[in-house]
Known about the structure:
Layout (H helix, E strand, L loop, with lengths): L6 E2 L6 E2 L4 H7 L1 H13 L4 E10 L3 E8 L4 H13 L6 E5 L2 E4 L11 E2 L4 H4 L5 E6 L5 E13 L6 E5 L16 E3 L4 E3 L14 E3 L29 H6 L3 H16 L1
Parallel strand pairs: 6-7
Antiparallel strand pairs: 1-2, 3-4, 3-9, 4-10, 5-6, 5-8, 8-9, 11-12, 11-13
The structure holds zinc ion (ZN) (4 copies).
One zinc ion binds next to loops.
Amino acid sequence: MKISNEGVCRFCLKTFSGSTMGRHLSACRTKKERDAGEAAAAKKVEKIFRIRVSAYGEFWLHLEMMASSTLADLDGFLRSIWLECCGHLSQFTIHGEAYVPENEDPEDIGAESMAVQLGKVLSVKDKFEYEYDFGSTTYLKGQIVSEREGTLKEKVRILARNRIPEVLCTHCGKPATRFCTECEDFYCRACLPKHGCEEGMALPLVNSPRMGVCGYTGEQDPDDFDRKDRAPDEAVKKRGLPEALIKYREAMKKKDTEL
Ligand SMILES: [Zn+2]
Ligand SMILES: [Zn+2]
Ligand SMILES: [Zn+2]
Ligand SMILES: [Zn+2]
């Protein structure tokens, strides 16, 4: 069974797997042309980092940010696209050093502040870890993939992200739309009320590693746009629950018992 954690390059709109997207983005001609055009029109250019962030193998993002942006900027972005449920504490770990939000009084807990520029604490190839919520923690991993000189209109530019994992209803095999947090299984809209658990225990499936955790329902899902064009996939029906989702659920259960 193959993990299908593909996504769309937002420049040429072609689809790549999670493992080949990085290489594609380095080579994408549409992106190169747009970057060059924007740099030529800009008054000054700055150092831009390409960053990959991933979780549980299934969820990933390729981003660009100015090296002069802060860890706090990245924290805010990760919260808004993947994580924020009720304002939990978060932390970056870089070269063994912990970085927490400025309002958590970093000095008091022996940590550094997130109000620091990316370029001051990270260089190309450097890896970092990130945790959101120290109760039901969501763990992310990241790396500075490369850097370039140029200009960015937005604080964080999304280059590509994974498509929402396709999961099938445990009862009828149709595409699932809900995750029941009571029995930890997936259901379609029709089977959910019939399966025995309280309906209020179910959460919508969202394109986030926080799916099914702490009432997380997600705010934005920008890659939905290309799902409409996709024909119902017979192969997906036969495939059953994607292996990666099983791993993801096991990982979440393991984290829960560890903490
Ligand atoms: Zn491309
Ligand atoms: Zn929460
Ligand atoms: Zn069903
Ligand atoms: Zn249930």
